[in-house]
Amino acid sequence: MSMALLGGWKHQGPAACQTLHMRAMRLGQPRPINDDPLELIELPNLEPGPFELSIDVSACAVCRTDLQIVEGELEAERLPIIPGHQIVGRVAAIGAGVSGWSVGDRACVGWMAGTCGDCPFCVAGRENLCPYARFTGWSRDGGFAEQVNVRADFAFPVVTERPDEEIAPLLCGGVIGYRSLKVSGIEPGGRLGLFGFGASASLAIQVAVHWGCEVYVFTRSESERERALQLGAVWAGGYGESAPEMLEAAVTFAPVGSVVVQALQAVDRGAVVAINAIHLDEVPAFDYNHLWLERQIRSVANYTRTDAVEFLQMAAEIPIDTTIEGFRITEANGALAALKRGDNPGAGVLLIGD
Ligand SMILES: [Zn+2]
Ligand SMILES: [Zn+2]
Predict the structure, then answer these.
(1) Cα of 21 to ligand 2 centre, how many Å?
(2) How far is the CA of 248 from the centre of ligand 1 (A)?
(3) CA of 258 to the centre of ligand 1 (A)
(4) Residues with C-beta atoms within 5 A of ion ligand 2
(5) Which of 37, 110, 155, 190 has the fewest CB atoms within 10 Å, i.e. the most exposed one?
């Protein structure tokens, strides 16, 4: 590697030259993805702080939120930052005060990097709403790197023999999609609508089908409608179409406000429309009759560790099928560009160390 690629990091003299290095794809300044905003850098190998693990990353899936951070649509909480919040790897080193982990253990980490543990939300088991929460790849460095430091109590053991790259896409879209199902209030066997059918919805449908739900999928993409039917949807149609039955719950995945109104029109009295989006364009004005009779709109924010543990266990048992497309770490910009174009056949995953 040439010095020109080293970014802001400077050699500190002969001693520093002898230290081991790790590579990372770091965001200095948000820019359109086609301008390659992520830069390959080398940093000294990480040492875990107190209550932290250092993880050797083997796979990190890419997510629309990474794209939004890299392009500046979602403002990074600090810069520079290494994005990536769907991380699978092995514990390389253990910080002071950590128990329950051994070097070499398979570990995975998602979007939640830490919460305060003391606020009313944390105390009430709603740590996903903690105002002091920190987020992997947004407020602290994430997994587009050969190593990452994480809070040990926010890492999860891997509970399946499946390869790391098949687990990585479960850690954001899967876990938050699972929380969305819970927020929607769908009961086993109930009639559920899914609006939009990207990576997260294609994982959520597998949980819903496992629960015996009748799933109705709305998406403008013909190939996504076909995939929905293959995964067990009883019906698939376009956004403008009406399902043959009134739905008992709905989750919207499309990052488009108008879809929320369409979902509201498709659900029965008393039903919840759960919005699975960290960033949404404006929800258009709509007739109050669509909300009347105790219909509800709820956003879904982050996840609790309980959600993650429940979902990862269920994903191993069902087992949930993930289709992935592998990229090298140096291809992180390309992986995000492919996500933006929407031409990924499966979830994009950086295969780190290959
Ligand atoms: Zn808190
Ligand atoms: Zn994500």
Answers:
(1) 27
(2) 32
(3) 33
(4) 63, 65, 172
(5) 190
Rounded to the nearest whole angstrom, what is the distance from the C-alpha of residue 17 to the centroid of ligand 2?
35
283-310 pLDDT tens trace: 999 999 999 999 999 999 999 999 999 9
Cα of 259 from ligand 1 centre, angstroms: 32
The per-residue pLDDT for range 213-233, each reduced to its tens digit, is: 999 999 999 999 999 999 999
Cα(172) to centroid of ligand 2, in Å? 5
Interval 98-122 mean pLDDT: 98
What gap in Å lies between CA 96 and CA 11, rounded to an integer? 28
Ligand nearest to the CA of 110: 2
Tell me how many degrees the CA angle 324-278-286 measures, rounded to the nearest 5.
Answer: 120
Q: CA-CA distance, 253 to 339, in Å (whole number)?
A: 15
Closest C-alpha to 61, from 179, 174, 203, 165: 165
Instruction: Give the angle subtended at the CA of 116 by the CAs of 115 and 122, to the nearest 5°.
Output: 80
Contact 34, 134 (CB under 8 A): no
Task: Among the bound ligands, name the one nearest to the CA of residue 169.
Answer: 2
User: pLDDT tens, 12-25?
Assistant: 444 444 568 999 99
